[in-house]
TrEMBL record:
InterPro entries the UniProt entry points to: PROXY, YbaK/aa-tRNA-synt-asso_dom_sf, YbaK/aa-tRNA-synth-assoc-dom
Listed name of the protein: Ala-tRNA(Pro) deacylase
Alphabetized GO MF terms: aminoacyl-tRNA deacylase activity
Organism (species): Mangrovibacter plantisponsor
Domain YbaK/aminoacyl-tRNA synthetase-associated: 30-154
Organism ancestry: Bacteria, Pseudomonadati, Pseudomonadota, Gammaproteobacteria, Enterobacterales
């Protein structure tokens, strides 16, 4: 299952957005790979450059919110830090159905951009340290984009939140 689901084509939306914003990027086609370590080898990029996307839900203290958390593929997320940032008591990973509903993509294909109004985008600043480019699956398991880091930050405008372990 490598194609985005639902009505939208996130890959096309993403490419159009990047072109319209004059971003410096390149597209790679490869075998469908969803695991960070394997896809970095296929791309010929370092694991640290990989932009891993986690769809989380934050609950508690009258908070109920979905978050798209972006971090380096070489790092692990501390979900309690995400919950704390939003004033919630706990955070957990979203279900596969929630992921598909909010991102229109399957696990492993989610790009580091939110195209859904109820999906708040955050990124751990550690991803951008010493990285001139980030790499990520572009809405499809068989397509990756390697994007200039400054262009990503300018276009996506994530909230920068320290949430790695």
């Amino acid at each position: 299952m490598s194609e985005c689901v639902a009505s939208g084509d996130i890959y096309q939306q993403l490419v159009t957005l990047l072109k319209d914003e004059n971003a410096r990027f390149r597209i790679m086609e490869h075998e469908p790979v969803g695991k960070c370590e394997a896809v970095s080898v296929v791309r010929g990029t370092r694991l640290e450059q990989g932009a891993k996307a986690l769809v989380c839900k934050v609950k508690g203290n009258s908070v109920k919110r979905h978050v798209l958390a972006i971090l380096s593929a070489a790092q692990q997320a501390d979900l309690s830090k995400i919950a704390h940032h939003f004033g919630g008591l706990k955070a957990s990973l979203a279900s596969p159905l929630e992921v598909e509903t909010l991102t229109q993509c399957v696990f492993g294909a989610i790009p580091p951009f939110s195209f859904h109004p109820e999906l708040t985008l955050i990124a751990d600043p550690g991803l951008f340290l010493q990285q001139q480019e980030i790499a990520f699956n572009a809405g499809r398991l068989e397509k990756s984009i390697i994007l200039n880091t400054d262009d990503y930050l300018r276009i996506a405008r994530p909230q920068l939140v320290n949430f790695t372990r």
